[in-house]
Sequence to fold (184 residues):
Amino acid sequence: MGLTDQIFVAFSQFKFRILKTGSETNGEYDLIEHVLFPKSKTAMRHCHKNFSEKYTVIDGMLILEVGSDYKLLTPGDTFTVRSNQSHTFFNHTSDTVRFTTEIRPSSEAFIKALVIRQGLIKDGLCNKKGMPKKLSHAIILLNLSQTYIKGFGGLLRLIAKQAETPGMKNLEIELIKKYYDPYL
Fold:
């Protein structure tokens, strides 16, 4: 089964499926559909250096925290978070919210990080919030996904440097082979 045939679930927070990858859009974008469960927040405030994310709500209400502003999105609403723009998102209601995220330009590395994280979750290698238990796995996922946690600039530069060491590169290759390559 390919990537676009899968539904991935991250504990009680959300599930997602990859609708399109850059290989299907000539590198223009990736498209992911999410279902965020009631009263769920999925990530710390973060940004992505090399791509934007366009959120479009299909059902329910989604709150995007972008910079110091909050955006309430309802069905049909769209908002684009530019690259390097700090953001997070959450569902404050007792209903699920379904939305898509369009990543422009496409980022195979980001998709790899999502899929690897799901494999780690399935193998019990993440905590209840979906964070890797091993620092080495967290470093690889942050580096692959081009995700930068706001407020940890100096630490993240060290982490990025660590991700480039031969041992970490070998571990990254192992994780890709184990969790991502089977879907190709």
